[in-house]
Structures are given as C-alpha cells and as structure tokens.
C-alpha cells in the first residue's frame, strides 16, 4: 500500500516481544512483531527494518518508541511511556474507552482515560508476575500445554478451582498438587485465569474503573482472560483490532502529531 501523505513509525519494545507499525494518519501501512531477545535496541531496529520492508514507503519521517526498552532505541526521534502509547492507540481503535487494561509479558496496567482520550490516572504492577502474561505462560508450561491451548481449555471450564498463591513458584506447586488430586485440567486452567483477573482487577479498582472498558496487549487475544476480567470488573471488556499493536499504534499517532 502506498500513502500519499506523511508516513511515520511507532515501535513498542516490550519485555517479550517488539512490535512496529508504519502509519499515514488513516491506515496502518505495515506491521510486524518479533521476539525482543537480549538486545532491545537491536530488536527495535530489526522490527523497524522489517516493517519498512513490507511497505513501498521510501521515507519514514518520524519514529516514536515506547515500552520497557524505549530508552535504548537511539535511532528514534522520541520516546514515550507505554501508558500514554496504549491509551492513544486504544482511544483511536475504540473511541470512548474509559478504562483500559493492558497485560504485558512481565507487568499489568490499569489506565483511566478521559473524554479527550488522554490519561488521567493509572496503576501498574511491575514487581510481581502474578498479574502478567509470564505467570500465565509459566503455569501453562507446568501443565505441558502451549498458552493458546491452555486458554481454550480454560474457556471450556464450568467449575474453576481457586488458585491462592501469588508467587509463581508456589502457584506451580499448587497446580501440581491439584493435578495429583485428580482435579480436571480445564478447571485448574480457568482457576489460573481467574486468579490473574482478580489480581489485575484489585489493582484497577483503586482507580474506580468505569465502562466502556478495553483490553490491550497480546493476552487480550485470550478469550478466557477477557471473560474473567469482564466478570470481576463488572462490565464488558472490549478487545480492539490488533490488540498487541495498540502501543505501537499509539506511538505512531503521536509521531504523526509531531510533524503535522
């Protein structure tokens, strides 16, 4: 796709994956997602090169980065927080959103958005894995399941068990004990999802969340997590198109605002 306007890039350097988009103000011209690996800067550069290669754009006029590795991307024009980036991206994809939940690889965030699509309050858990994608991935591995299969198994549950451990290691022991007792796998899997949703909701409720709600990040593609978050928050959590790219898109939107 060729744009007749200005083209910019947004790059979200997450703890697990790096996402990049090229944007012209009305459409995403290209997008890519790669593992972050050991060098956030190299991953950001690789993601940018890859996404630019998928388009017929000769010139990307501005690059804005976000995410935990944003300070390493020396080739970018500007760095912004992932709080700001996700809020802008989701406000574009789902206008009117007031409560945004973002569950990343190693943290989770609750973001309150005003009528103008701007952040007015937020809470973040970056000290404990219990409300993160890593916690979900680790316990799926404990049950010898890929995360996608773990999520679908959980969605089929009708009687979830309570997972009380916050610590990843203790939660693993709890899951193994439940398996040894013969508890059905789907009920354990749903219990894990519900536990994460409860941790995230506990953080969010200090901010007095309200509908409409949205859920961004790669974990938002998990149907069980969407269901459990909606249940504990008391209103439906909508999932935007390409939820894992919300931060990169928000960065691109801000990049374009810097040159128009």
Describe this protein's structure.
- The chain has 260 residues and is α/β, with parallel strands linked by helices.
- It folds into two domains: 91 residues, Nucleotidyltransferase, domain 5, CATH 3.30.420.40; 143 residues, ATPase, nucleotide binding domain (Nucleotidyltransferase, domain 5, 2-Layer Sandwich), CATH 3.30.420.40.
- The protein is built from eight helices and ten strands.
- The strands form two sheets. The protein has a five-stranded mixed β-sheet. A five-stranded mixed β-sheet has the order 8-7-6-9-10.
- It is globular.
- 51% of the residues are buried.
Examine the coordinates and then state which fold CATH places here, giving the name of the CATH topology of the largest domain: Nucleotidyltransferase, domain 5
Strand content: 15-25%
Give the count of structural domains. Answer: 2
CATH superfamily membership of the largest domain, which one?
Answer: ATPase, nucleotide binding domain
Structural class determined from secondary elements: alpha/beta
- Strand element count: 10
Task: Write down the secondary-structure element order.
Answer: EEEHEEHEEEHHHHEHEH
Question: What is the alpha-carbon Rg in Å?
Answer: 19 Å
Question: Sheet with the most strands?
Answer: 5 strands, mixed
Across the major sheet, the strand order is 3-2-1-4-5
Per CATH, the architecture of the largest domain is 2-Layer Sandwich
Helical stretch tally: 8
CATH class of the largest domain: Alpha Beta
Cα(first) to Cα(last) distance is 21 Å
| Helix content range | 25-40%
Low-confidence stretches: none
Outline, from the CA principal axes?
globular
Mean pLDDT: 91
């Amino acid at each position: 796709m060729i744009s007749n306007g200005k083209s910019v890039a947004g790059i979200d350097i997450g703890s697990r994956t790096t996402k990049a988009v090229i944007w012209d103000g009305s459409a995403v011209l290209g997008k890519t997602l790669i593992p972050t690996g050991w060098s956030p800067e190299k991953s950001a550069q690789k993601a940018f090169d890859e996404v630019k290669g998928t388009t017929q754009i000769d010139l990307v006029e501005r690059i804005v980065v976000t995410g935990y590795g944003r300070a390493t991307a020396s080739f970018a024009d500007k760095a912004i927080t992932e709080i700001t980036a996700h809020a802008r991206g989701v406000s574009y994809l789902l206008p009117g959103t007031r409560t945004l939940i973002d569950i990343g690889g190693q943290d989770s965030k609750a973001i309150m958005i005003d009528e103008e699509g701007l952040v007015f309050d937020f809470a973040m858990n970056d000290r404990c894995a219990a409300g993160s994608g890593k916690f979900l991935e680790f316990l799926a591995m404990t049950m010898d399941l890929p995360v996608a299969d773990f999520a679908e198994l959980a969605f089929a549950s009708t009687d979830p068990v309570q997972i009380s451990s916050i610590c990843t290691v203790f939660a693993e022991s709890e899951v193994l004990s439940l398996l040894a007792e013969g508890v059905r796998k789907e009920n354990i899997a749903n219990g894990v999802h519900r536990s994460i949703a409860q941790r995230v909701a506990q953080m969010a409720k200090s901010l007095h969340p309200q509908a409409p709600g949205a859920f961004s990040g790669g974990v938002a593609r998990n149907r069980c997590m969407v269901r459990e978050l909606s249940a504990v928050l008391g209103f439906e959590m909508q999932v935007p198109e390409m939820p894992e790219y919300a931060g990169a898109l928000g960065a691109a939107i801000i990049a374009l605002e810097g040159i128009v």
